[in-house]
Specification:
- The structure is a single chain.
- Helices cover 33% and strands 15% of the residues.
- It is built from 3 helices and 3 strands, in the order αβαββα.
- A 3-stranded antiparallel beta sheet has the order 1-3-2, with no helix packed on it.
- The mean pLDDT is 81.
């Protein structure tokens, strides 16, 4: 899609937050590599965010990424793969 927009001389802007949605490919990659922020008891530090799907719960527990500890590289790989090409 980014290539099609570029052909139309449209520039793509991506807003990057240091949070990730459970169930996404990025979430699983960051969790497996230990790049999600944990609370004092060792659980994931999360906050409720509205879901996109009407048939799901009204909110999902979004997790915070720990960018200085390597999550930044994983996120940039995914952004480059999906938006830059």
């Amino acid at each position: 899609m980014a290539e099609q927009l570029a052909d139309l001389e449209v520039k793509v802007a991506v807003s990057m937050w240091q949070t990730v949605e459970p169930g996404s490919d990025t979430y699983h990659e960051l969790r497996a590599s230990g790049h999600l922020v944990r609370d004092a008891e060792g659980g994931l530090l999360t906050f409720a965010w509205p879901t996109r799907e009407a048939d799901e719960a009204p909110t999902l527990p979004m997790a915070y990424c720990n960018a200085p500890q390597g999550a930044r590289a994983a996120l940039w790989r995914r952004l480059n793969a999906n938006y830059v090409r």
